[in-house]
Amino acid sequence: MPHFYEHLHRHTETQITYIIKGSGTLIAGNIMQPYGPGDLFIIGANQSHLFKSDPDYFEKEGSLNIHSLNIYFDSKGYLNNLLQFPEMSMIQQFIDTTSQGLQASPDNSSLLSNYMWRTIQNTQGYRLAAFIEMLQTMSKLRDWKYLSTESIEQPISDYEGLRMNDIYQYTMANYSDNISLEEIAAVIHLTPQSFCRYFRKHTLKTYTNFLNEVRVNEACKKFMAHDFSSISAIAYQTGFNNVSTFNRVFKSIIGISPSEYIHQYKTKISSQAHTGS
User: CB–CB of 18/113 below 8 Å?
Assistant: First the structure.
């Protein structure tokens, strides 16, 4: 496809996605993070999510495109009876942990992508057998990363999903500007005070925190793509008024300073290149 589906949405099926080609920003529940080739995610049933492709993928004359493997399954549907067997208890327990979304480690992503290929390429009972084997393997892995660390009490309705999508789309398109509360509240026709309550209810965070996450996320992608001349240039390009504020906010979200992030990423790439050779 030219790009991933560009709107916030949810569905009753649990979704397993392996990114073969493409990059952008993942929003799942109340988290936001970059995604790229080699990433494997499990999106929980009814978990609001959006794989937002980078802007380059939407250029009319562009040559970029995306490729992913996707498996959807409804554990409350036909699989429900199968999951009642004692032999399926570990798989059922694992499925229960996917409600907040999961991300596999790089090594496990490669392993599990092979199981996904086998499931997709097989037919009839062999497909079901490969699928169950994949779930059994997933249930034994212990280094999953939760996508959302907090549980939102009520699943978001379709109507609210459309409103939240408008907020996300506007923010990601204008993050480098000075977005005021009045401006973003007007997107869904609320007063600033009502908007603040509304946004916190559905994300468990303030809009300022979310906006900063968007900006830092974009900064990380620029660092990884070597698309910058200096840290201060990135700070201003991503909407921060000064470098000190950028450094402070970046460290509060990522856990390390921008310079440390760049150093760690360069070390990682160098190590991978050395291993590959």
Answer: yes
Closest CA to 48 of 156, 159, 203: 156
What burial class does residue 118 get, using C-beta atoms within 10 Å of its C-beta: 0-12 exposed, 13-18 middle, 19+ buried?
A: middle
Torsion sign, CA atoms 170, 213, 69, 55: positive
Residue-by-residue DSSP string for 11-37: -SSEEEEEEEE--EEEEETTEEEEE-T
pLDDT tens figures, 63-122? 899 999 999 999 999 999 999 999 999 999 999 999 989 999 999 999 999 999 999 999
The residues, any chain, with a CB within 8 Å of residue 150's CB and separated by 6 or more, are 29, 30, 100, 204
Please state the pTM of the whole predicted model.
0.82
List helix spans (H) across the chain: 79-82, 89-96, 106-121, 124-140, 158-174, 181-187, 192-203, 207-224, 231-237, 243-254, 258-276
* 130 is a domain residue: yes
- Residue 62's SS3 state is coil
User: Long-range pairs for 177-186 at CB < 8 Å and ≥24 separation?
Assistant: 177/239, 178/239, 179/211, 181/207
186 and 222 in a single domain? The answer is yes
DSSP three-state, residue 146: strand
CB 254 within 8 A of CB 246: no
pLDDT at 273: 60
Within a domain: 171: yes
* 182 and 243 housed in the same domain: yes
**pLDDT tens by residue, 216-275:** 999 998 998 887 889 999 999 999 999 999 999 999 999 999 999 999 888 877 766 655
Give me the domain span that covers residue 99: 14-146
